[in-house]
Structures are given as structure tokens and as C-alpha cells.
Amino acid sequence: MKKSLITLALGLGLSISAMAQDIVDVAVKAGNFKTLVAAVQAAGLVDTLKGPGPFTVFAPTDEAFAKIPKATLDGLLKDKAALTKILTYHVVSGKVMAKDVKAGAVKTVQGQDITLATTGGVTVNGAKVVAADVGASNGVIHAIDTVIMPK
Predict the structure, then answer these.
(1) Burial of 93: CB neighbours in 10 Å, binned 0-12, 13-18, 19+
(2) Distance between CA atoms of residues 14 and 68, nearest Å
(3) Closest C-alpha to 142, from 128, 130, 127, 132
(4) Sheet hosting strand 113-117, strand order edge to edge
(5) Cα–Cα distance, 75 to 111 (Å, whole number)
(6) Domain with 28 in it: what CATH number?
(7) 89 near 149, Cβ under 8 Å?
(8) Which candidate, 58, 61, 86, places its Cα nearest to that of 72?
(9) pTM for the whole thing?
(10) Spatial distance between the Cα atoms of 26 and 114, rounded to a whole number of angstroms
């Protein structure tokens, strides 16, 4: 079965790595999460987000990070504990596709709740999902337009 799946994938022009891209690989390949990927690396969370999951990541785009003053962002990138707290606040356990999002509070990996809303599109603590359902082998990414901050 495995061999035939691999043969089928290769026959369709897919590489084995394309079939197994995790959240970090997908974010890197997307090209609009450069700051997020740098932050994940600085916080030491690469292995976690390459792990089995599944995870749902509300991923701020580079434009979202650009809303944070440069000095503040530079300071966060040097503060591993604060950075980890913020990044894990953007992650929930499980793979939740946009069509399955229910309005209300959801516990993040960081431990605090985020508030999801579905009126006029999906939002997370008021940040708009600008690209939904970006699939990965270990979960899903929903790109958001603002970095959300824990309390």
C-alpha cells in the first residue's frame, strides 16, 4: 500500500517531501510568514511545530508583524520567554478547518483562551483570518492580519 501511494504521488509529479510538509515547512514555503518563522526559530519552537500535532496555527503574516514597532519586535525576538508565550498563544490543539470554527472561547497551547468569532468571516481576538485552511501534514494554518497578544 505504501509503495503504491508513493508511486502514485511520484506519477502525479509530487515529491515525497511535498506530501509530508509540516506546519513550519508550509510556512516557509508560503513566503509571507518570514517574521513568524524567524520568531519560531528564536523561541526554539521549530521541533514542536514539526511534531505530530495536530495543531491549528493562527499565523500572523509579515504584514501583521509590521504593525508592531520595530524596537518592540526586536526586543521580543531577544526575549525567548515572552516570545514563546506570544507564539503559543496563536496555537490550539487539534486540526480545525475554517468551516468547523465555532464562535466562543478556545484554550490555546499557551494556556489562555482566545475568542473566535464567525460573523463576517473568522476572527481571532478581533484579528481577521485572511487566508484559511492552509493544510500541513500535522495540522492547519489560518493566516491572520494582526499579532494577538496574551494578557
Answers:
(1) middle
(2) 38
(3) 132
(4) 91-93, 55-60, 139-144, 127-136, 123-124, 113-117, 104-107
(5) 23
(6) 2.30.180.10
(7) yes
(8) 86
(9) 0.85
(10) 24
Does 92 fall in a domain? yes
- What does the pLDDT read at residue 19? 52
Domain total for the chain? 1
pLDDT at 109 (0 to 100): 95
Gap between the Cα atoms of 137 and 54, Å rounded: 8
Give the whole-angstrom CA distance, residue 64 versus residue 1. 43
30 and 72 in contact (C-beta within 8 Å)? no
Residue 41, pLDDT score: 95
In a domain, 51, yes or no: yes
Are 52 and 138 in contact, with CB atoms under 8 Å apart?
Answer: yes
pLDDT for position 5: 34
What stretches in the chain show pLDDT beneath 50? 1-18
Residue keyed to cell 508560503: 30
